[in-house]
Amino acid sequence: MLGEYRISGRRAQDIAASVERGVGSGELEPGQVLPPMRELAVFLEVNPNTVAAAYRILRERGVIETGGRRGSRVRPRPAGTTRGSIRVEAPPGVRDLGDGNPDPALLPRLGEAFAAVAEAYAHEPGLYGGAFVDPEFAALARAALDADGVPAGPVAVASGSLDGIERVLAAQLRPGDPVAVEDPGWGGLLDLVPALGMRPLPVALDDEGALPDALEAALRAGARAVVVTDRAQNPTGAAVSGARADRLRAVLARHPGVLLIEDDHGHAIVDQPLHPLAGVTDRWAFIRSTAKAYGPDLRVAVLTGDEVTVDRVTGRQRLGPGWVSRLLQRTVVHLWKTGAVDPDEVAGSYARRRDALVRALADRGVEAHGRSGMNVWVPVSDETGAVARLLQAGWAVAPGARFRIDAPQAVRLTVSSLTEADIGPLADAVAGAAGPARPLNYG
Predict the structure, then answer these.
(1) What predicted TM-score, i.e. pTM, was given to this entire model?
(2) What is the crossing angle of helices 326-337 and 111-123, to 10°?
(3) Which of 125, 260, 305, 436 pairs with 91 at a CA distance of 20 to 30 A?
(4) What is the pLDDT of residue 264?
(5) Which of 278, 332, 301, 291 is CA-nearest to residue 146?
(6) What is the rounded CA–CA span in Å between residue 334 and residue 301?
């Protein structure tokens, strides 16, 4: 039925577990078509409803997908296989431009902040029963959101952007619901949606963000939620412009029941203004991470939204971790109050490197994208070949497959470690590896 692998079990849970074991061991490969439900029911001598329930469990876990008459098959990338595993390890002597990390030289030193917070903690330790969100953290975060035009809403705290997005999706949607996501987009999010049992609907974008027509198509196809990156979009560097924001709001206004999630992880590292979309749908959330500007290991993100959404998120959070460490929240407060990060300096540093690389590639006839943030996206005709040729030239880059659903082939380069002297040699290597490619705006 499936080559040498035999699905087994009498109960739905057992049948589902058998399929998962096959996927985990590699005996059931990505794309493998599963038997029709009635055929498998006859083989296992069980009721077809039992097999239907097993397949439903597998869909909700992100292991399989169902395509109508095409039947059920193992997902091309099952939920247990992260896109982060699609990477190129940089051997000795090869520069790693694929890790997506910020420049450590631009991150603040944390010793003073930790010492100050620890001293205060000695006099007033955090105990059970305290406020889950530090009052000063909430006040400063809300003031910054107000200044950027983010609608009023309560403040919660998540352990980074992806944690916040997961909590919002889980609070408002159910397994099987379609979610509109940017394509190309953040690999972590493209893994998360199917892992929650939800179905990603790709939305094409250009340098100014999601294309309105593509978003409209996803919403008409049934998307229950939309995830938009406002600035420093990973991997393309797109930033939602004022004109594009107006058009996207008009689209969203025609679908007030959709859940809008905005990711502003680029706050304090970009020189592009924020044009928030929130305010035109009934349910929304806005998430602002400290990771890129203050350090990935702080694991603190501001989360706001409509009262119902935030209340559901915090209510569920209390039943799990309870809260994000108030020690970390107070550390971020100290960094904010002391001006430990100069956003203009940080944004300028990334912009100089990013823009220099984009210009150098343009001079060599290579299309590249990088309007904001720390990444440059280069469309290529042969992704695997381009990655291999760049590796031979001494540069490890991120394969575009980590970030794509239907988008054309490309590679991502993180500029954080580049110096002025690196730009020319890197551009030469990319030009030699790229080849003709389709443009980013393919919608």
Answers:
(1) 0.85
(2) 120
(3) 436
(4) 98
(5) 278
(6) 15
